[in-house]
# Entry
Amino acid sequence: MFRDPLTITQNMTFPIPPKTTVGGMLAAILGIDYNDYLNDPEFFNFRYSLVLEKPVRKKSFVQNYVANYTKGSEKKFNAIKKYLESGKKQKDLLFEKEQLEEESDLTKKEEKLLGSIGGKIESESMTLEKASASCSKVFNESFTSPKPIFRELLVAPEYLVFIHDFKYEKEILHSLENHFSEFSLYMGNSEFSANYTYVDCEWSLEESERLDSFTLNPSKIVFEEGKKYTNVYMATKAVGQREYRDYKNFILCDKQITLSGKTQVHAIVTKVRSYYCEFV
# Structure
């Protein structure tokens, strides 16, 4: 769903939405075109943090892609279209000829048309015959052998995302509180729709030996048995034609991270509970 842009022949997904994806979702809620926010040097200056609401589950499978499917399908579509258009034109000419032949008092213009319509019908019949032969030829052609692509999907992911110092924070709050989005939200592919709920919170800086979010400081982690740690290398900024910049290593854990000593973190209080987070 959150495809790693560094993978080419395989569609591997990040376990969490990177900052670039979160920025894209914020832009979608506001209705900002991607050409505008990708070329805005201040857009990705916000900081974000993320908490896993449930353990990350992935599903892996192989999907066959046909290399020339789009081009081949277009060729077949155009052949059908030409055949149908030619058939309709021939049918209209035959009907027009029949109408003229039934008319007892023709004008000079109609007489001239009646005299020439037979040639038009014959010409269109030849065009229709060629279109029919072209259809047969195109539909007998096979597509290139399918190319297997390895893909990963996340199974029903849920995240708690915190945003701080967003350029359009005042403008977006009304939309978030009213669950409104200018553009549809989706995760990676358009068939994977996304949803969100606004969470009201308050924050302060505190000293803590625990982290609920990711961290960029692995040296401070006390690695413990029974916990699953994952290292993720992700971009934190996108520019121009979806060019990714400022990559960082994120350490995730399926449970609360224990630190080797007290560290200043963001203590975020919601109606549900308090979270200790590191922002990027």
Remarks:
- Residues 69-102 form the longest helix (34 residues).
